[in-house]
Amino acid sequence: MVQKYQSPVRVYKHPFELVMAAYERRFPTCHLIPMFVNSDVVNEETSEDGTTQRIERRCALDVDAPRLLKRIAGVDYVYFIQKNTLNRKERTLHIESHNETFSNRVVVHETCCYSVHPENEGWTCFEQTASLDIKSFFGFESTVEKIAMKQYASSINKGKEIIEFYLRELESEGVSHVPRWTCSSVSPALPAPSSLSASPPELQHPSAPAVSASQPADAKDGASQEAKQDSGAPQADSLVEILAGTPEDKLDADYIKRYLGDLTPLQESCLIRLRKWLQETHKGKIPKDEHILRFLRARDFNMDKAREILCQSLTWRKQHQVDYLLETWSPPQVLQDYYTGGWHHHDRDGRPLYILRLGHMDTKGLVRALGEESLLRHVLSINEEGLRRCEENTKVFGRPISCWTCLVDLEGLNMRHLWRPGVKALLRIIEVVEANYPETLGRLLILRAPRVFPVLWTLVSPFIDENTRKKFLIYAGNDYQGPGGLVDYIDKEIIPDFLGGECMCEVPEGGLVPKSMYRTPEELENEDVRLWTETIYQSASIFKGAPHELVIEIIDAASVITWDFDVCKGDIVFNIYHSKRAPQPPRKDPLGAHGITSPGVNNVQLIDKSWILGQDYSMVESPLTCKEGESVQGSHITRWPGFYILQWKFHNMPACSATNLPRVDDVLATLQVSSHKCKVMFYTEVLGSEDFRTACCDVQSLGSMTSLESSHSGFSQLSAATTSSNHSQCSSMISR
């Protein structure tokens, strides 16, 4: 398996030329990197005008590996080749490195780039990508991979300090400015030009040569006088607040530390790679970085697993319009009176504090009066409010706060709370929250647990993630009042009065819900349907040989058909056809050939098998292949009245030719599609051309439209412009 690394953008608050002067001091050897033994210049060339300088080096590393492994491998040092390209005019340094030793067994490749900060010419940016592929290594592949990743992560952290060390050394010598290169210059005005060009970033890979000569990172604020060269440049605080929202934007290391916390280099890499994947597949509609990070933490930074559950959650949020919940949901009066929960200041760590007096809550009465769906929606609104409060507290306290603390008072808990429908509702709520709000609970304080609590805990604990269970602290009786109790987590001044504190708490005291407010199961069922079917999206299942089709009748030419769909499972092909003939009434595929008997399956086919493409109907857009997890938005301007058929079809993997073997990705994709079934969630709308142009203007004027969306990313249910579709205004083989 190929291990990959992608660094955030690390910023030096020093000019490019000064950073290069510090960078070259590391060679041919560097006492700060004991494993970097030596480096020899293999080839060096400079362009005629002196603008570009290329240097190729052969570097030796003394890898910190077990002696037995070195003896088996038969080497003391590993060597890698590094090629540096310095462009003095453009002020960039590109570095490519690969291993020479064991190149037939291990493939290490790294690229680094130093460049001028796009918003401040007095600062320098550094980016780094690397990959490690261990094909075979005397049966020690797993061991070598672990050693490699461990030492590589260590070298990244060390690399952040090295340039800063040499910058301070230059400052102590009185060197605080290096003039820029000009056309009249024969060579750069740097202390030792030869070593500058040869400055190799060493990747210090444990098992194989790697490269990362200098990994400039968050440089200290000292010697920031270079920033005076650009009086209009943004201050450090404004840089830190940069949030990427387009595929071209990149995360800054200072931003990560300020808003997301201390992450290891490999954790940073997982975040950046998953974020980039979302930008590519979801067309900019990506969650905020802290929310992506929660899903990564929930799966121990396994990117594939995190991506799977995150995509499922994004689809769920979109289908039920959870992003608009805080604006659209108004709790019924019975909830306001009898739901014994509410927000109450914050804990000692700055986390929002939510108090739930579960023992005083009439769970049976609430379920009978409101139904399961209303309770679930109310709990979701609490979680959405928690996300919002975390963002506010992050700004207030000046440190990352991504979760909240929940205090549950169980005084009064009895067998009434174990009413079976109530427990069922609780389990469902836990299941939905666990799937869509991972790593949002920082700590759960359970106070005054009665004897009946172990019974309830036995019922619900299997549905709670193991990492979440570790955050539970349970106190029986008045144990919470002693050492190690509540005062260790909550300031004494805000302990609620009902727990012996002096702070008045606005959480309702609850009580029994009057039976006059109870509703019949039929009434609740109708209300449940109303609540959860308020969605503009529809779902459909697609099978091999059984596409799902939707007909749209167009009366006025130049209308605009818009679509927005998510591929929830499998790979599909999206087509648009036009016909002057009205399709037959929709027929649902019995799916007998597929062994599917579920009555909930939505699969409609409209194109009659006797129709001939090019005569009875024609294709007006090029087919679009969509991968699992992708979100697709687009539009088509109609040119003729008639019937337009939108088709989602199962994507058949192309058969391999005699000379071409199937790609690994294709094989894996084939294995992932179980029972030849795909699923999409879609929304379509027809607009007049004038309405469409107005909608586009409105969309472009909007900022973030979802509560989880990155603050700099635009989002619309419509295409931002007619040409945003991969295939707009195409009309081919129109039947006349």
Mind explaining what this structure looks like?
With 736 residues, the chain is α+β, with helices and mostly antiparallel strands. The chain has 4 domains: 2-173, Alpha-D-Glucose-1,6-Bisphosphate, Chain A, domain 4; 247-320, Orthogonal Bundle (Helicase, Ruva Protein, domain 3); 328-516, 3-Layer(aba) Sandwich (Phosphatidylinositol Transfer Protein Sec14p), CATH 3.40.525; 535-582 and 612-653 and 676-702, Sandwich (Jelly Rolls). The chain has 19 helices and 24 strands. Strands 1, 2, 3, 4, 5, 6, 7 and 8 form an 8-stranded antiparallel sheet that branches. The protein has a 5-stranded mixed sheet with strand order 9-10-11-12-13, with helices on one face. Strands 15, 17, 20, 21 and 23 form a 5-stranded antiparallel sheet that branches. Helix 14 links the parallel strand 11 and strand 12.
Mean pLDDT equals 77
Indicate the structural class: alpha+beta
Could you tell me the number of beta strands?
24
N/C terminus separation? 54 Å
Under CATH, the topology of the largest domain is which? Phosphatidylinositol Transfer Protein Sec14p
Inertia-based shape: globular
Secondary structure: helix percent: 25-40%
Largest sheet: 8 strands, antiparallel
CATH class of the largest domain, please?
A: Alpha Beta
CATH superfamily of the largest domain: CRAL-TRIO lipid binding domain
The quaternary organization reads as single chain
- The radius of gyration computed from the alpha-carbon positions, rounded to a whole number of angstroms, is 31 Å
Low-confidence stretches: 187-248, 589-600, 656-674, 698-736
**% residues in beta strands:** 15-25%
Pfam families: CRAL_TRIO (PF00650), CRAL_TRIO_N (PF03765), PRELI (PF04707)
GO molecular function: RIG-I binding
Domain PRELI/MSF1: 3-175
Biased composition (Low complexity): 192-217
